[in-house]
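Ticket 4471: requesting a sanity check on a complex prediction with calcium ion. Repro inputs:
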Amino acid sequence: MKKILIVVLLVASQTLWAQVPPKPYGPLPSPRQLAWHEVEQYGLIHFTPTTFENKEWGYGDADPKIFNPKEFDAEQIVQAAKAGGLRGIIFVAKHHDGFCLWPTNTTDYNITKSPFRDGKGDMVKEVADAARKYGLKFGVYCSPWDRNNAAYGTPEYLAIYREQLRELYTNYGPLFMSWHDGANGGDGYYGGAREKRSIDNTTYYQWDETWTNLTRKLQPGANIFSDIGWDVRWVGNEKGTAAETHWATFTPQPPKGVNEAVPGQANYEDSPTGMRDGKFWIPAECDVPLRKGWFYHPDQQPKSPDELFDLYLKSVGRGAALDLGLAPDTRGLLSDADVASLKTFGDRLQKTYAVNLARPAYIRAINVRGYNSIYGTKNLVDNNPDTYWTTDEDFKKSEFTVEFSQPTDFDLISIRENIKFGQRVEEFAVDSWENDAWKEIHKGTSIGARRLIKFDAPVTTTKLRVRFTKTPEVVVLSELGVYKVAE
Ligand code: FUL
Ligand code: CA
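Returned structure tokens:
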């Protein structure tokens, strides 16, 4: 009787133990960052009087009367973005020229002074409504540098800027991002002064205060983007690419000789890679315009669908996000060429991801945590980011094989870590079964939110193997995809 009891207790304790999930490792994403990771690719719309001046940076002196986009259609822009696979839209509500695209109380330099909708328009609202109608998330960019405002450089301007954020935070529903550019100070119109003004980045904007007391309070779901974070960091270039190895963990670095990194003044050397031992979860956003400039210029052409796919692999495919600049023309529409390029790129993604060749395959892992099916490999192909495969603690080096029922062609593999457990994998390898032996076909480093491995030529095999060769703690993988990229 005693013996039976002991056995029962033993089995029970083992089952209990087997149900304990692994411990998280390192800095972890917040719920708002987790939601941001799921967006993966989004658009950033630049459209102000600067478009009508054919410039990249408006001086702040453009007559609001030139802002007359007679055919403006937020739905055309949003639908094109959606067709391009984008899942969010950030609208530049105010660029450096200071022109506000909503009827603000903070300055006369705003949309009500333009002919658009006879001075009764609110473009922020039109874009927000269109984004929500088509199921895209919405965010705003309100430039701190304001080349129009007479008060720029004084404390009075800071109050104006904060009030502009407050208006944007309270009138347009939940935002998924609040985007802050780093360009600051310099020459401008400044209410007619036409002079150069410089501000001290380290003190002038008091970002801590603006972000904790305004952004967090009024828009708790908004990810704050700036060159150094808080939630999302700049990748350090405007080419749309993260480094081959990308850590979501990061500690903002000050420039040489300075004590503290502040937005607009930092050392960006480690921004493309992040830092393995970074103190915070601050993943990179890779921003790049669809055309050469952020604003529309008639002599420029959009990137081709192939170029977009390549950028996608080098941003989203490295665990970062892609932020693609969209530039309506003076009609207020995206040009046919932009729409076509986006659509071909988006169709390609959609067709590629329509069939996950790993789903019907047999996935055999070297170990499943506690032999418990709640950690089994079926979780790798259930399209649910929460469920995952993981192993017992003594299986830091682990692997699984994907066995197809017949020889299968693929050229793209997608692997996601369950980042709720932190970013863990440091090195992995992929093998394919060829001539009765394993052949290594890829060596990789970081995974994080997602790793896309694209092969130059299709691989044909009956089975493939993924080996995790270096990780400080056991692997926790949420999804695996094996695909043949559509033409
Ligand atoms: C930069 C700005 O200076 C550019 O004009 C553009 O808005 C880009 C997205 O951010 O900081
Ligand atoms: Ca899953």
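Notes from triage: The chain has two domains: 31-352, 362-483. Leaving this open until the requester confirms.
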